[in-house]
Amino acid sequence: MSRQAKPGSKPYRAQLRDRLTALGFPEEALPAQVAKNLVVECRIPPRTAWRLASELSLDVAAHQYNAVTGDPRAGMRGTRIWEYEQWPERGVRPTVAALRVLAQVYGTNWKCLLGLRDLEQLPAKDLAEYHAETEPAVVAPEPEAPPVRALFRTEGRSEEEIGAGALDDALLLTKTNVDDLQLDDLWADLDFLGGAYTRTAPDSILGQLAVIADRTSALLKGRQRPKQTQDLLLIGAKSSAMMAWIAGDLGRYRLSRELNTAAWLYTQYADDLLARRWVRTSQARVAFWAGNGIESAKLAADGLNYHAGGRLTDAPLILAEARGWSSVQAEPQVLAAIARWTAIEDPDLGAGGEDSFFNITKDRRHYMAGTSLLSVGQASAALREFATAREAFEKLSLENRWEAMDPMIRIDMGRAHLRLDDLEGAAAQVEPLLTAGVGKQPDMVRAMLKLMATELSGPRWRSATTARHLAEALLDAHASARP
Questions:
Q1: 115 beta partners
Q2: What pLDDT is recorded for position 143?
Q3: Is 279 within 8 Å of 267 (Cβ atoms)?
Q4: Average pLDDT, stretch 306-326?
Q5: d(Cα 245, Cα 263) in Å, to the nearest integer?
Q6: d(CA 52, CA 175)
Q7: Worst-scoring range by mean pLDDT, 256-260, 311-315, 411-415?
């Protein structure tokens, strides 16, 4: 070719067609010859090679696929064709039926869309169907990594060759395997699941978030425009942080730590302050419930260093910092943090919007303040916070309530009454909960049931019959509350 073009690129294919035409190949034979060259010379997998040889984008190929099936509204999309092209290393295995339709779109035989590695991964039934058909197919060699072009090496190259292909390389920045609709769908799914968290079983939300994380990871392995790559990194950060949070609810703290580590890596590459706040909020929560209070406080304090406007307020991180210090009875740090939160607390602040998952509601804010105060011996102040939390909880619509808050408030109000030597008051808080049945609850509720039972079994209340019966009922509830 007279001017160097990047192997496999559109200019490369145009030059290749010109050469084939000059050699006498008819127009109808060109796609097969181009596909053959792309597979053999450029090491492009066969399904991608045939699509490029047909000069079809992913979306146009999907449109023609749906036209072949006779249903323009059929579900094929460009992203699914891209996933077919990534298999077997990743992506989705195409069915034989899908391959047959794609072959019609590209004007070839379905067997030509499979390489040796594809055949090695085919189910036995599909492989038998492959061999049963008599129409020949060329098994394409597997693509290898193309040699890396040495940068800035100009010796031995003519003046015309220097810089040849630079435009093609720059144009690669315009190539993308994702569109704005896909990104909007991913963000919308995250927002929906964030809102559904309070009223849906945590393992269900965790599973749906895992699908988003897998889709995001698969897309990131391809090529996007820089802004689209950053969006995918942010989606990866948020979905991983949310998964870590919910895995903690289920008591899977090792998984939570791994997910939060992944989320932090995403934020580092995305270089986004808001994303760092998401992840530090999740990390602080997981660390606290895993028993690492000081680490939790430090993570929360670090999260406050990332100023990201008004989308994620300081309140959750300040309260997480207070709660972390409360685990080691660091009263000065706890009281200082509570004072900072009190100074900024907006009683009318809800948890709506894009970050409702991390922007906790009023009942949960006052509950966190109460638990911190209780842990450093401020039982009366804690009771006031718990009363405000209960009032705020009862004012929430059912769809915005996190149902775990009711037992958590009751248990800690009961513990506050015990600190004030009020056994009857403690019983009055938890007995309605025990009578109604605790049901399946997050891991932290189970931990609190056991904690109150332990406190009732201590020297102060050991001789009291009411305390003994209450402790037994709490342990029974603890055993039955596993999520």
A1: 140
A2: 44
A3: yes
A4: 88
A5: 11
A6: 13
A7: 311-315
Between 362 and 160, the higher pLDDT residue = 362
Q: Please identify which residue in the block is written with the tokens 């808050």.
A: 405
Q: Tokens 């939060």 belong to which residue? A: 260
Q: Enter the tokens of residue 196.
A: 């559904």
Residue 154: per-residue pLDDT: 40
In the predicted model, what is the mean pLDDT of the chain?
85
Q: List 140's β-bridge partners, or say none.
A: 115
What φ, ψ does residue 376 adopt, rounded to 5°? -110, 20
Task: List Cβ<8 Å contacts ≥24 apart for 435-438.
Answer: 437/477, 437/480, 438/407, 438/477, 438/480, 438/481
Whether residue 104 is predicted with pLDDT greater than 50 in this model: the reply is: yes
Query: pLDDT tens, 64-91?
Result: 888 888 765 557 888 888 888 888 887 7
Region for 35 from its dihedrals, namely left if φ exceeds 0, alpha if ψ lies in -120 to 50, beta otherwise: alpha
What's the pLDDT score for residue 69?
82
Buried residues in 98-120 as b, exposed as e (16+ CB within 10 A): bbebbbbbbebbbbbbbbebbbe
> How many CB atoms are located within 10 Å of the residue 131 CB?
9
Structure tokens at 401: 């309530």
Q: How open is the CA angle 372-373-377, to the nearest 5 degrees?
A: 120
3-class SS letters over the chain: CCCCCCCCCHHHHHHHHHHHHHCCCCHHHHHHHHHHHHHHCCCCCHHHHHHHHCCCCHHHHHHHHHHHHCCCCCCCCHHHHHHHHHCCCCCCCCCHHHHHHHHHHHCCCHHHHCEHHHHHHCCHHHHHHHHHCCCCCCCECCCCCCCCCCCCCCCCCCCCCCCCCHHHHHHHHHCCCCCHHHHHHHHHHHHHHHHHHHHCCHHHHHHHHHHHHHHHHHHHCCCCCHHHHHHHHHHHHHHHHHHHHHHHHCCCHHHHHHHHHHHHHHHHHHCCHHHHHHHHHHHHHHHHHCCCHHHHHHHHHHHCCCCCCCCCCCHHHHHHHHHHHHCCCCHHHHHHHHHHHHHHCCCCCCCCCCCCCCCCCHHHHHHHHHHHHHHCCCHHHHHHHHHHHHHHHHHCCHHHCCCCHHHHHHHHHHHHHHHCCCHHHHHHHHHHHHHHCCCCCCHHHHHHHHHHHHHHCCCCCCCCHHHHHHHHHHHHHHHHCCC
Percentage of the chain lying above the pLDDT 90 cut: 46
In this model, does residue 213 exceed pLDDT 90? Answer: yes
- Please give the average per-residue pLDDT across 390-402, as a whole number: 88
Query: Mind listing the pLDDT tens digit for each residue in 130-150?
Result: 888 766 554 444 444 444 333
Least confident of 55-64, 101-110, 204-213, 286-295: 55-64
pLDDT at 425: 93
